[in-house]
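Write out the bound-state structure for phosphoenolpyruvate.
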Amino acid sequence: MRKNIVAGNWKMNNDLAQTEALIADLKAQTISSNAEVMVAPTAVNLFSANAALEGNAIEVIAQNMHFAENGAYTGEVSAAMLKSVGVHTVILGHSERREYFNETDELLAKKVDAALANGMRTIFCFGEELADRKAGKEEAVVESQIKNALFHLEAAAFKNIVLAYEPVWAIGTGETASPEQAQDMHAFIRKTLANTYGAEVADSVSILYGGSVKPANAQEIFSKPDVDGGLIGGASLKAADFFAIVNAF
Ligand code: PEP
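---
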């Protein structure tokens, strides 16, 4: 059966002292759900976050990586470097990477390949913009994002892929997709996977929802049959809020 996952994306927040303080707060919380819990500090704090969480069930994951193994890519971080500091899962394709750093489906396909070649798990993000939804194109946009970046993969690769549907209009806006909108899209995503890879693969892939998930709405969203967890931005910066979401399962 597929896993329930709640991952916190800290984005470009928290210096070293703040990272250590938030981790101390997280360690004081109790996981009372069956969800896998992950947090994604900024790259410079991955090593210390991992050290601080040693022996804890919370996994430290990365927000991004480059597709190359090494070389003249100033400012970038490779899969091998992430692994060398104990990071084995990476978020790819976040809408902020797509919007502010011009990451395309083609580039993301290369990043996904690099992550998988290094034995890393990928949380692959995608989602439509408000204009797409208003035009009734949300399924077409999501289908093309997934197909362009992932459908060159063999079925076996999906054991290391987690999908994160994040409608851009719901990220950091306080506006959440309704549980029904999330369920409809997640069911569509699973059907899209099943059409190409078969029901077994489609049923095994965790599909997270992201976009203004809070303690107050998590339980209803997570109760939907095709929603296997959440990618949490703002609410992951406070340990109590994040754990209220984790424990909503
Ligand atoms: C995100 O950035 O992935 C996200 C879901 O942010 P927020 O929860 O703040 O909307």
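---
The beta strands are 5-9, 36-40, 59-60, 89-92, 121-126, 161-165, 207-210, 229-232.
The longest strand covers residues 121-126.
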